[in-house]
Amino acid sequence: MELARIQQLEELAKQYGNPLYIYDGDIIKSQYKKLSEAFNNVKEVTFNYACKANTNLNILKLMKKLGTGLDAVSLQEIQIGLKAGFTPQEIIFTPSGVSFDEVRKAVDLGVNIHIDNFPFLKYFAEEFRNYPIGIRINPHIKAGGNEKISTGHVNSKFGISIEQIDDLLELKNQIPLNVQGLHIHTGSDIVDIDIFLKGAEVIFDVAEKFPNLKYLDFGSGFKVPYKEGDKQTDIELLGEKLGEIFNQFIEKYGKTLRLIFEPGKFLVSQSGYFLAEVNVVKETPYNTFAFVNSGFNHLIRPMFYNAYHHIINLTNPNAQKKNYNVVGYICETDTFASEREISEIREGDLLCFLNAGAYSFSMSSNYNSRLKPAEILIMNGETHLIRRREVLEDILMTTEEINL
Ligand code: LLP
């Protein structure tokens, strides 16, 4: 990490305290640029930001300014999206297992909706006849960095099975459904471009049976590098290859279709830095533990997915490296990193976790009654507080106190 960036992060920690989430808006901008340039061979293409990755209102406002649409998975994400300035037409709601009442509310708000099960298709036809929908297909493709983020395989809960397409067509003949799009998303952290191309072939085959489509949504799963030498999705090559077969398909289909992607990680992961301070360094006969003032309440990816987040000691970056287990203050095993080589850590040092822009704050909780950190956005050389640090009153606010 460059010295200027280290100094900037340290300065922000002094100003706003820690633990602290910091996002660099310029990195988000340049990631968006990379994506849009990679697919500039396709006539109509939209990137719907998968805001589950980072739902801060201001991050959504930045996406809107850049020109993305929005992929939302809950009523609340839709509401934040609308508040950020997205029009209902720019939002696609792709829920999984929500109540039909939530779908009804999304229809009331006028957003686009993806449906992935037969019962809801029937309810939808009964209540909303001509309202446009997209259908999520499960292509039976095994993909993704780990089991938890693999969503397109045969045993996955997501989508209508590719083996049920005939049933789907039959249902479509019986009830009024206005199917305007098809959607797949096979998982997150996909390096192999052939997986995307295979998914495309599956969706093209289904699309031939739906003559009135307006778009095909390929979901996301673009992998970003987490550690040095890590493989990532070659987005330029993907753009070239997928763009080419997409263009061939629309020629065959006979009319233009919009190509949609729903990137989360690719847009925001690398923009994020999570800072935490070392409370104590504890030596045992077997290990050296560096305890930070955080835990899986703030950053759960290492514990939940065994995910690697690179750690830099901002206070002592050039010291000799030693082996550490970086752990948190939660009363459970909350290991951020095991036997990791990091520049010598002392009590009071500030550690920085990289790739903390996606699925980091958005997956945080109040476990152990800990408070959520503040969030900062650096934009055009200026820094902005985009979420204040929580105080105890925030978690007490939703508690009903009764007389016992
Ligand atoms: N579209 C759909 C339908 C999705 O389910 C997801 C992610 C995305 C798009 C965005 O995928 P991305 O571009 O971020 O790979 N919490 C996990 C990742 C779970 C992703 C869930 N769905 C993690 O931290 O690795």
UniProtKB/TrEMBL annotation:
Task: Quote the pathway field.
Answer: Amino-acid biosynthesis; L-lysine biosynthesis via DAP pathway; L-lysine from DL-2,6-diaminopimelate: step 1/1
| Binding annotation for substrate | 301, 305, 332, 359
Q: Does the keyword RNA-binding apply?
A: no
User: Which Pfam families does the entry link to?
Assistant: Orn_Arg_deC_N, Orn_DAP_Arg_deC
Q: Which residues form the Orn/DAP/Arg decarboxylase 2 C-terminal domain?
A: 21-357
Cofactor dependency: pyridoxal 5'-phosphate
Q: Which UniProt keywords apply?
A: Amino-acid biosynthesis, Decarboxylase, Lyase, Lysine biosynthesis, Pyridoxal phosphate
Q: State the active site.
A: 331 (proton donor)
From the Swiss-Prot or TrEMBL record, what is one GO molecular function term? diaminopimelate decarboxylase activity
Q: Which InterPro entries match?
A: Ala_racemase/Decarboxylase_C, DAP_deCOOHase_LysA, De-COase2_C, De-COase2_N, De-COase2_pyr-phos_BS, Orn/DAP/Arg_de-COase, PLP-binding_barrel
Q: Which GO terms describe its biological process?
A: lysine biosynthetic process via diaminopimelate
Which reaction(s) are listed as its catalytic activity? meso-2,6-diaminopimelate + H(+) = L-lysine + CO2
Q: Which domain of life is it from?
A: Bacteria
Span of domain Orn/DAP/Arg decarboxylase 2 N-terminal: 28-269
EC number(s) per entry: 4.1.1.20
**Top-level EC class:** lyase
Cited SUPFAM superfamilies:
Alanine racemase C-terminal domain-like, PLP-binding barrel
The answer to whether keyword Transport applies is no
CDD domains in the record = PLPDE_III_DapDC
Q: What does this protein do?
A: Specifically catalyzes the decarboxylation of meso-diaminopimelate (meso-DAP) to L-lysine.
Q: Which family does it belong to?
A: Belongs to the Orn/Lys/Arg decarboxylase class-II family. LysA subfamily.
Please give the subunit comment from the record.
Homodimer.
Task: Return the HAMAP family for the record.
Answer: LysA
Please identify the protein, giving its name as recorded: Diaminopimelate decarboxylase
Name the species this protein comes from. Apibacter muscae
Underlying gene:
lysA
